[in-house]
Description:
Chain A has about 190 residues and is of the alpha+beta class. Helix content of chain A is about 45%, strand content about 20%. Chain A contains eight helices and six strands. A six-stranded antiparallel sheet of chain A has the order 3-2-1-6-5-4, with helices on both faces. In chain A, helix 2 (about 15-30) runs antiparallel to helix 6 (about 140-155). The model of chain A is unreliable at about 1-15 (pLDDT under 50). With about 280 residues, chain B is of the alpha/beta class. Chain B has one domain (about 30-270): CATH 3.40.50.200. Chain B has helices spanning about 35-40, 95-110, 125-140, 160-170, 240-255, 265-270; strands at about 50-55, 70-75, 85-90, 115-120, 145-150, 175-180, 195-200, 210, 220, 225-230, 235. The chains are: A alpha+beta (about 190), B alpha/beta (about 280). At the A-B interface, helix 4, strand 4 and strand 5 of A face helix 3 of B.
Amino acid sequence: MTDRELRTESDVGSSASLLTLICELARWSHGAAAVSVAIIDGNGLEYVASSGAGADEIVGTRLGAGEGLAGFVAATGQSLAVRDAVSDPRFNREVAERTGYVPNAIQIVPILDADGDVTGVMSMLDRGHHDDVPNDPPFALPGFADLAAALLTRSQPDGGRVVEVARRLDEMSSRDRGAALTAISAVLDAIAR
Amino acid sequence: MSADATPDDDLPAWSEPFHGDGPGAAPDLGLDHPITREWAYGDGSGRGVRLAVVDSGVDGTHPLVGGVAEYVDVVRDPEADEGIRFELGEHDDLYGHGTACAAIVRSLAPEVEIVSVRVLGADLKGSAFNFAHGLDWCLEHGVRVANLSLSTSNDKYAETFHEIVDDATFARMLLVSAMNNERKRTIPSEYAGVFSVACAPGTDREQVWCNPNGPAEWGAAGVDVDIAWNAHGSITATGNSFAAPVVAGHLARIVGAHPELTVWQARTVLAAVAANAAL
């Protein structure tokens, strides 16, 4: 049995702005007050992206292991929906008050890496807080968590190799690039068969 | 009898078969003298049954838990044999999750011997590794029923847990495993060798539903249920995690009354006393 590998902070940092966009899309889709992403860093969680109420304040906040509802989801890998959050003993009021927004309802889902291990959590505060929402959200919250997972996975070492290959293709003459793409396509086709 | 609750978009995944029209009839052996709850459960105490709560630890002092017979903490240690160390002695519950499960079991089988096997601790990394070793410990220490209100989605562990489930089956250790609350891989819950559990309607812990089509084979109360939590408190929560220990409690009664039952025999008896038996 082997342990999973964790990304480095710099990997995540390069994806933070795209993660923020995913949070923004999730928040808009569900009319939520806020959506955030926290990733496991060492033995705690760090909020790396957020959209909505308290977004500026929550990013950079760290939670120790076992702290708050997010810590619970990170540890157990089980999603959680709490309607009356402030009365829940797992709720970390101190963090909420620091952001200037104390929610009523919270939904938190795990973000899984390519191996299926928990790599972070996505939290949504007060779904339906805004009336101006689409009739059919593109995803439920777990779907947005999958998007975030895909983005975070892309920033792992294999993703870096893809970027490197793309850079080298860009540097080639158009004739060489055409030949290289033909060769790569043939290899991909062979693997796909 | 049919399930009577209205379908709910917020239900944990895999719970749908138990709602709406329900899962249909449980398998019927057509016996001249059907298995009764009185025969199946005996005195219903779970006496003599060693039941492990493999989770975040258990607060044995919580009034609804009523004591823990043995504690073991499964700790990662690169210096130790196989990278894992087993620490005996009382521990706490960092999250409250294991305490909730233990209290549910206790409410159904008051004399069961609860063993807390802590695999979810302060270390957020590699919990599947601890989980697998926790089950190995159970196999080697006479556990008869193990409640697993956790699972992994990590494919790398698929074979490891397959072997553990097979070993448990032939060692007559009943593994009760909550399905993931999301529709993702859920190891070992999705394996046929475990008692896989999702949420059924209502809050009555005396009701267990059988869904012969799986992969969530058993349904029990887990939606908006009152559960024990940290600091001797309680909360109202929803999750397949809280349905699994209901099934574990029923199985503790069954093997308490019939200590020699194999895993497949226990499965047959539980189906015979399910809420949807002999429709």
